[in-house]
Amino acid sequence: MKWLMTAFRGVLATCVMISVVVLTAGCETTSSQPAVTPSGGTSGAVRPTSTPTVAASPTKPWGTSKEDVHVPLAEGQTAEVTSGDQTYRVTLVKIVDGATSSNMFQAPAEGKKYLLFQVIVENAGTSALHLIGSEWALRDKNNFDYDPVFAPVGFTEGEALAGEVGPGGKQQGIVVFEIPQDAQPLFLKFDPNMFTSGEIYFDAE
């Protein structure tokens, strides 16, 4: 009888140990599961916030800088602008709508025409000016923008503006644009330095 009681106690102890192991494993498994917050519920955990979207700042429209100079788009008009240590005095000498070139290779495409401006650029400052021809731009009344014709030749009004102009010196030349036959200019712009403010606008009425 005694040996039976001893065996029974051994079996009972083994069962208790197995139960403890199972319960411990269950607790560990439960604790490893992430907490789930019901929809609309409140949780003490910090939720990630979205990064606010920063709107891009618009570029400044042409002709709105306080350093810009505006004069009428008419023959004989003169305007002056300073860019850094350089001062440009520009005179619009002549406007030719439908200009022609004697060079057989210099002709506008079908349905287009040449709009020519004869100008004088004077150095009214103390530093040399360097003209390359890309200082000019044209906008028509339909708000289309045009770059000047590269290296215009064969025009009786002169040649393209280019080269160095020393202090007190001046240079006369032409700026030519190829535009549609029915296009009319809104303004002619002279921008001596794209990295600084201060431009000249010859504005059409």
From TrEMBL:
Keywords annotated in UniProt: Signal
Name of one Pfam family that matches: DUF4352
Listed Low complexity bias regions: 48-61
Ranges where the DUF4352 domain occurs: 80-199
Polar residues biased stretches: 30-40
Region (Disordered): 30-65
Gene3D superfamilies the UniProt entry points to: 2.60.40.1240
Cross-referenced InterPro entries: DUF4352, Immunoprotect_excell_Ig-like
Organism in which the protein naturally occurs: Thermalbibacter longus
Signal peptide: 1-25
Name of the molecule in the record: DUF4352 domain-containing protein
